[in-house]
Design goal:
It is a single chain. With 473 residues, the protein is an alpha/beta fold. It has 3 domains: 221 residues, FAD/NAD(P)-binding domain (3-Layer(bba) Sandwich); 109 residues, FAD/NAD(P)-binding domain (3-Layer(bba) Sandwich), CATH 3.50.50.60; 112 residues, Enolase-like, domain 1 (2-Layer Sandwich), CATH 3.30.390.30. Helices cover 30% and strands 25% of the residues. The protein has a 5-stranded mixed beta barrel. Helix 1 runs parallel beside helix 7. 46% of the residues are buried. This is Dihydrolipoyl dehydrogenase. It is found in: Cytoplasm.
């Protein structure tokens, strides 16, 4: 470990480790300070996303989908399976291996790029110095030409439902159940709540989601959210809106007390997941005399290029404004690295895709119809259902729609929204189209292979001009 570096990164999640690797690629000396420790007590790179977020949740979503298909769907394909059983500990073990393989891969990349991984807590001091307090050993003060703050976020706690790590858990704990709860409550019907609810519902839980807002998935286009809610409820998820949880009591079960439009209500569950959002992890990030500007919620103030109010100090990812998405943080990390190197790095915040990995998946990019109406922007819309595509039918995944919003005068694509099979992959075409300022006509004139799911995107583009082939216009 050196005493001085070109760049010191505090935080090794997708924003921090990607920024560090890009800095190293550009010839800089780099150190990454990270305090994450796994459940077995060992340090691990990758932050929340790789260790207790994006990756493990997707591993469990895939496992639960495989089980659900074997248990409930394969008979319709003429495949009869007898004696199916569920081994939840093995499912968790597989999830842990996926995480270990990927985090170990980052460790190898650090080694190849000669990045120093410092295991412990980092605190920004004056004049771009960083106090490093290792998990074991003595505190040291390091110096850098540039400092990148990328400490990520943590789950929000609520007083009405204090977590105990056993029966009332946050999103981290929801990844560690060793058996399927008969009744599962979820506070919050957002991205995390829906994904975790889907995992355990497919495995046999009776799942109830309590959402404080009166609107389901408020950030999502209203038409797509409405379609998604209908499909989720058909699967057995019970989604209750306008619910304010007031108290939880633990006995033989967990009693969840809440209020809605009909007054005071109570449900009994075996496990309760609290997933009401995340907050920036900026506690103890900088000494007070540094003067780092943060807002009332703890977000670090930055400009369009992720520069803080302190020269040579940058912040990226969940600790700054914008969506808390791993890929957004990664692109910010790359942008900062390139700007430090004197290159023209940038992030187009108008073309950041969002995905909810339920079944069917929900994905979108750009503006919703509601936002366009509120702004008074003229627009045209085209929609197309997966039920009319041969590939979706053959896959037995014919639910959902694709919706394209184009400017009413220029035809430039302003937003693309979908709920359906593999929406997380299909949205990439829309992101690329918007990045190149394409029109719906451009997509409509692009040849799509047949039979594919992407034909739904093609037909939705045709529908903007009321000329979809496989839909009555």
């Amino acid at each position: 470990m050196a005493d001085s570096y070109d760049v010191i990164v505090i935080g090794a999640g997708p924003a921090g480790y990607v920024g560090a690797i890009r800095c190293a690629q550009l010839g800089m000396s780099v150190a990454v300070i990270d305090e994450f420790v796994r459940k077995d007590g060992e340090p691990s790179l990758g932050g929340t996303c790789l260790n207790v977020g994006c990756i493990p949740s997707k591993a469990l979503l895939d496992s639960s989908e495989q089980y659900h298909r074997v248990h409930s769907e394969l008979a319709g394909h003429g495949i009869k399976v007898q004696g199916t059983s569920l081994d939840v500990p093995q499912m968790i073990k597989r999830k842990d291996k996926v995480v270990a393989d990927l985090t170990g891969g980052i460790k190898q990349l650090f080694k190849a790029d000669k990045i120093d991984w410092l295991q412990g807590h980092g605190k920004l001091l004056a004049e771009r110095q960083v106090e490093f307090t290792p998990h074991k050993g003595n505190t040291r003060t390091l110096k850098a030409e540039n400092v990148l703050l990328a400490t990520g976020s943590r789950p929000i706690d609520i007083g009405a439902a204090p977590t105990d790590g056993e029966r009332i858990v946050n999103s981290d704990g929801a990844l560690e159940f060793t058996e399927v709860p008969k009744r599962l409550g979820v506070i919050g019907a957002g991205v995390i709540g829906l994904e975790m609810g889907s995992v355990w519902s497919r495995l046999g839980s009776k799942v109830v989601l309590l959402e404080a807002q009166d609107t389901f998935l408020a950030p999502v286009d209203e038409q797509v959210a409405r379609e998604a809610k209908k499909l989720f409820e058909k699967q057995g998820l019970e989604i209750r809106l306008g619910c304010r949880v007031t108290e939880t009591r633990k006995g033989k079960t967990v009693s969840v007390h809440y209020e809605d439009a009909d007054g005071k209500q109570t449900i009994q569950v075996d496990k309760l997941i609290v997933s009401v959002g995340r907050r920036p992890h900026t506690d103890g990030l900088a000494s007070e005399d540094v003067g780092l500007l943060t807002d009332e919620r703890g977000f670090v103030h930055v400009n369009d290029h992720c520069e803080t109010n302190i020269p040579g100090v940058f912040a990226v990812g969940d600790v700054v404004r914008g969506p808390m998405l791993a890929h957004k943080g990664s692109e910010e990390g790359v942008m900062v690295a390139e700007r430090i190197a004197g290159k023209p790095g940038h992030v187009n915040y108008e073309t950041i895709p969002w995905v909810i990995y339920t079944d069917p998946e929900i994905a979108w990019v750009g503006r919703t119809e509601g936002q366009l109406k509120a702004a008074g922007t003229p627009y045209r819309t085209g929609t197309f259902g997966f039920a009319a595509t041969g590939r979706a039918r053959a896959m037995d995944r014919a639910s959902g729609i694709v919706k394209i919003l184009a400017h009413g005068e220029t035809d430039r694509i302003l937003g693309v929204h979908m709920v359906g099979p593999q929406a997380s992959e299909l949205i990439a075409e829309a992101v690329l189209a918007m990045e190149y300022e394409a029109s719906s006509e451009d997509l409509a004139r692009t040849i799509h292979a047949h039979p594919t799911l992407s034909e739904a995107v093609h037909e939705a583009a045709l529908a903007v001009d009321r000329r979809a082939i496989h839909k009555a216009n």
